[in-house]
Amino acid sequence: QVRPVESGGGLVQAGGSLRLSCTASLRTFSSYPMGWFRQAPGKEREFVAAISRSGGERTTYGDSVRGRFTISRDNAKNTIYLQMNTLKPEDTALYYCARSRLQTVVPTRPTQYDLWGQGTQVTVSS
Predict the structure, then answer these.
(1) What is the pLDDT of residues 13-69, one digit of tens each?
(2) Per-residue pLDDT reduced to its tens digit, 11-27
(3) Is beta strand 5-7 parallel, antiparallel or unpaired with respect to 18-23?
(4) Of 111, 113, 109, which Cα lies nearest the Cα of 99?
């Protein structure tokens, strides 16, 4: 299976914004929910956001990012996005996108996802 590819990470000052992209060359891309996770050094992988399949009408967010981050998808481009606003130093992490194993729910646990990208680094300076 082709793995997703993340991009858009970088170094930003606290209070700034970044938009991450994740592209997956999968014929069935629109049929599956997709999610974003992050992992900081020495910490467990943390759920960030997820979006339902097809039109992406359902979204869900981790408590630490709700109200600041927005997930969206463009099925014509086989791409999901993570718009990150009002970034904080504690948002510093390696950000991964992944495809859900399940098609009809929007899962939040890493074990509920199968295809993972290599990650893109986000660093927020204070």
Answers:
(1) 999 999 999 999 888 899 999 999 999 999 999 999 999 999 889 999 999 999 999
(2) 999 999 999 999 998 88
(3) antiparallel
(4) 113
Specify the pairing of strand 69-74 against strand 10-13. unpaired
Q: What residues are paired with 8 via a beta bridge? A: none
CA distance 18 to 9: 7
Q: Which two tokens stand for residue 126?
A: 């204070």
CA distance linking residue 126 with residue 123, whole number of Å: 10
Unique residue bearing structure tokens 């606003």: 85
Report yes or no: 24 and 81 within 8 Å, Cβ to Cβ: no
Residue 120's CB: how many other CB atoms inside 10 A? 21
**Residues ≥6 apart with Cβ < 8 Å to 16:** 87, 124
Residues in the chain: 126
Beta bridge partners of 84: 18, 69
